[in-house]
Design goal:
The chain has 384 residues and is an alpha+beta fold. 51% of the residues lie in helices and 15% in strands. It has a 4-stranded mixed beta sheet with strand order 1-4-5-8, covered by helices on one side. The protein starts with 7 loop residues before the first helix and ends with a helix.
């Protein structure tokens, strides 16, 4: 039987993250959403305590750990330090990419800076005309001696305005097979020809991490900026795909837990018709349904992390977890708003912000439809 009980060491680690963020962001980062300023002091505190480097190799200043520990760390950071969660979630795939495929020079320049409190690298894959259709990207490069000249643009680049560099996927137009044409380049944001524009967005209006469009006009970078192997960019993207899903799933579960706890506490406090609303059966039904859904999401996260740690095939599991948790957190938030009623839609309650912000999770990192499109054939293949 699989036991998902956290070890004493894991419990102490999560408590340490919680204490750090409650000290540095006592309001959970709510003030940051109002000012639009990123809480660098809190991020630096996480780095100083070794939490930013969890899962990364010791030689870069990290602390190796299993996937369950990494998942629970991301969940804890997402619960107690919302504004820094985007940094941490972005660092999970990009820094692992660098450690796995990067040269020593690249690792020293970018990963060690991140572990010491610098920003993560941004990931430039999606484009205005090719969001889910990654293989249809138009950003391309040609060689001028040992210099790659990149032209094109990226869209929906998270942390584009905060990152020092962007991992840009570009295609070699001389290679016909699109899946074999992609190459990853690490492009510093101050490279001539790079222009970054912050985009307005639904939700996260004042969140101090950006979603950007990136314009690349005759951007010249040396061959040494290739991350990994030329023409292997698509395969490299898939290599750390599981870690990105862990970040996706654990982050939305954290939001669901926070909303549920707020709604349950309010149901005990709010008195109507002479008694707390938590005594009314229709409210009780919502509380129970929210609890069941959170339990289901947690079980999916535990199972996914366990299968990764035991080197099992998780191609189906990642799609199911991303799809189910992205949809279910929205259902939990809707019930939480219904329990909170007036204060949930008037004023500045965090669940009201969650309700708008979290809708993006069904699109970012892979839409619901793409999850179904990619996962259903794998399920059906089992029954041929």
């Amino acid at each position: 039987m699989v036991d998902f009980t956290l070890t004493d060491e894991q419990e102490l680690l999560m408590e340490g993250i919680k204490e750090c963020l409650e000290r540095e962001l006592p309001d959970g980062g709510e003030s940051c959403y109002k000012t639009g300023e990123f809480p660098w002091k809190a991020w630096q505190a996480l780095a100083d305590n070794g939490f930013v480097g969890l899962g990364l190799p010791e030689e870069v200043g990290g602390t190796p750990c299993d996937m369950l520990t990494l998942a629970m760390a991301n969940l804890t950071i997402s619960r107690y330090g919302g504004p820094v969660a985007s940094f941490y979630s972005m660092g999970i795939p990009t820094m692992f990419d660098l450690c796995e495929f990067g040269t020593q020079e690249q690792i020293d320049k970018y990963v060690k800076d991140y572990v010491q409190g610098g920003p993560p690298l941004a990931l430039g894959i999606s484009e205005p005309g090719t969001g889910s259709d990654v293989a249809g990207m138009q950003t391309s490069y040609v060689w001028d001696g040992d210099t790659a000249v990149i032209n094109g643009g990226k869209h929906y680049t998270t942390c584009g305005a905060e990152a020092k560099a962007i991992i840009v996927m570009a295609r070699d137009p001389q290679v016909e097979n699109l899946h074999q044409a992609g190459t990853m380049f690490i492009v510093d944001v101050d490279t001539p020809g790079v222009r970054i524009n912050k985009l307005p967005k639904m939700g996260h209006t004042d969140q101090p991490t950006s979603i950007c469009e990136v314009f690349l006009s005759d951007v010249r970078v040396p061959r040494s900026t290739i991350l990994g192997v030329e023409h292997n960019g698509f395969m490299q993207t898939m290599a750390n795909f599981a870690r990105e899903r862990i970040a996706n799933v654990s982050g939305v579960i954290a939001t669901a837990i926070n909303a549920f706890e707020d709604a349950a506490a309010y149901a005990n406090q709010r008195v109507q018709f002479g008694q707390p609303i938590g005594r009314f059966q229709l409210i009780q039904e919502k509380i129970v349904n929210m609890a069941i859904k959170i339990d289901n999401m947690m079980n999916m996260l535990y199972k996914l992390a366990w299968k990764i740690d035991t080197n099992q095939n998780i191609r189906i599991d990642t799609g199911l977890a991303k799809l189910y948790c992205s949809r279910t957190v929205c259902e939990v938030l809707d019930d939480a708003i219904q329990v909170l009623a007036g204060i949930g839609i008037v004023g500045e309650h965090r669940v009201a912000r969650y309700y708008i912000d979290t809708r993006a999770c069904r699109i970012a990192g892979g839409t619901d439809e793409v999850m179904i499109f990619n996962t259903a054939p794998q399920i059906l293949k089992r029954y041929r």
